[in-house]
Each structure stands twice: as structure tokens, then as C-alpha cells.
Hints:
Layout: E1 8-14, E2 19-25, E3 30-34, H1 45-51, E4 56-60, H2 80-91, E5 96-101, H3 104-114, E6 119-125, H4 140-160, H5 169-174, H6 176-188, H7 194-204, E7 218-224, H8 234-238, E8 245-250, H9 257-260, H10 262-274
Parallel strand pairs: 3-4, 3-5, 5-6, 6-7, 7-8
Antiparallel strand pairs: 1-2, 2-4
Amino acid sequence: MDFTAPPRQRQMLDRPDCRIAYEVSGSGPPIVFAHGLGGCYMSWWQQVAYFAPRHTCVSFSHRGFFPSTAPEGGPDPREYANDLAALVDHLGLGDITLVCQSMGGWTGVEYALMRPGRVRKLVLAATTGSLDPRQMREPERGRLAGWARDAAEARTAMLGRNILPACGPAMAEAQPALHHLYAQMDKLTTGFDKEAVRARMGEMRRRPPADLAAAGCQVLFIAGGRDQVIAPFAAEAMAPEIPGSRVATIPAAGHSAYFEHAATFNALVEAFLAEPA
């Protein structure tokens, strides 16, 4: 059997204060992947391999994340959407589908609002990005404080057992090789304080959910039922305020469903892409 792998190129994009590493694989309608705080452009290996035969898959590392470079003072999430805009223009992608995980949701929400109508479809996985859960509807808003307290305790317990909260106990026990690989990718990024980035993300999280309606795109929230980093019920509370949005939950998944349950995650994204605009 003759097989030809999809074409692939890896390059760097110069920005005024840093360099952005990116990889382009495959051909067809473009999908851009924005990773989370524990990742880099390589995090999407299971998605790129799946979608590249039918799509141009662009995965990139946010400023400061391996092997991109960081400006002095470390990366500022307020620049993420500008970096993405520069990359989209550099590659001449035009309108895109955007798949975002956790921290990448800040990039996705802000980019979609920066360029209304230019995002065909937006996937927000384990994230609400800069949309503020404290402004979501009741009764979910009333559950947030208790969930945050319990989740913080659960994350502390995980770290005491050498389990990454972004993976969770289920992945660590059932798929130790994946947990190990995730930890290796996480350790590739050095040279700045990730907690400072997390704090800057918190400062950006001020938008009411209804703001995203201005982006004019379909939105799929993918929640992990066992997520102890982002409240999984936040998506259900926000979706009714955003026309064209819906929620899919992977009950057995932790914070990183795209990594832990890739086949299920990919199927949800593919079905979403097949829906009429």
C-alpha cells in the first residue's frame, strides 16, 4: 500500500519583541490550534495527525512557550490575539476555524472579537477564556465559590501525588504514558513564571459571556466532567447567552480531554465542523 504523509513545515514568525514558532501540516480549510499553559505547539499531535489529511492544520507556541521566545518581563496574554492575527496574515489563511484549550481560550475569544466574522467556528475546550464565570447565570454562578474551594484542595492533593492537575488522577492511573508525555512537554517551557501569566489571565477575565456574540461565529464548548481546573458547568451557563453556541461534555475527562480522550474529542470537533454555518 502506497502512503504519502501530509506535507509539513515548521518555521518562526518574527514579532517586534519575540519570535513565534509554528508548524503547518496538511492542506484544505484551515484549523488553528491554541494550546494551554502546560503545552506548546506539539500538544496537538493527536489532532494534527487526525485532521491534516483534510485540513491545513496550524499549531503554534504562544510567546514564551517552547520553542517561541519571550519578551523581557515574560509573556503577556494580552498580546496573544495580536500574535495570532500576525500569524494568520503571514500565512494568508483568511477565515479560520480556531480550536483552543484552557489558556488558548484567551487567545481565541480575543481574536474572534478582534476580527468579527473572520472565525468560522470556535472550539473552547476546558476554557471560557476571557469570559468571566463570575458573571454567568444562576444557579451555576452560586456554585462557583464552593467548586473553586473543592477544586483547589483536589489540585493540592494531586501535586502531593506527583500528578499534574491539567491531566488529573484518571489519566495518570489509566494512561501513565500520556501523563508522562504531558509532563515532558510542560517542562520544555522555562525562563519565566507561569503563575505570573496565570495572574495576568485572571486580570483579563472581565468579559460578560454575552460579549462573545459580537464575534459572529458558531461556538462549541467542550467540557471535561472531571475537570478540576476550569468549572465544567461554566460552559452550560454561558452558552445560552451566545447565539450559535452549544456544549459537549466528555464525562470521564479531566482538564485535557484533547490529550486524554483524543478520539472522542476529535469526533466532536469533526461533527461540529460538518454542521452548516
